[in-house]
Specification:
Jelly Rolls; five-stranded antiparallel β-sheet; 10 strands; 4% helix
Length: 101
């Protein structure tokens, strides 16, 4: 589940967007990339694994990961509780900038 918190098309800010994402226990996001946007993931609850350009590593509440434009990435919740994170994109998120891999 993704909940948009701030986006230029709705809130009037200009240079970035902010959303909250949740991945349920056992859930996984689709591998994707953003061609123009740099993205930051800041994990606020739970634990799991993240793939960034083919490399998997553990993530947990308190961790922050920078995702350069064009980098393939996805998440897997390996914990017993919901994996929750803030996603910041600059320039702001656009569906047209996202490619499923």
């Amino acid at each position: 589940m993704i909940r948009e918190l701030m986006h230029p098309a709705v809130h009037g800010n200009r240079q970035q967007s902010l959303a909250e994402a949740q991945v349920p226990p056992g859930g996984e996001t689709l591998r994707h990339r953003h061609l123009a946007s740099e993205e930051l993931y800041h994990f606020t609850a739970g634990a799991g694994e993240m793939e960034l350009d083919g490399v998997w590593f553990d993530v947990a509440a308190g961790d922050t990961v920078a995702i350069p434009p064009g980098s393939d990435h996805r998440l897997r919740n390996t914990g017993a509780t919901t994996l929750t994170l803030l996603c910041c994109c600059a320039p702001p998120y656009r569906h047209e900038d996202t490619e499923l891999r």
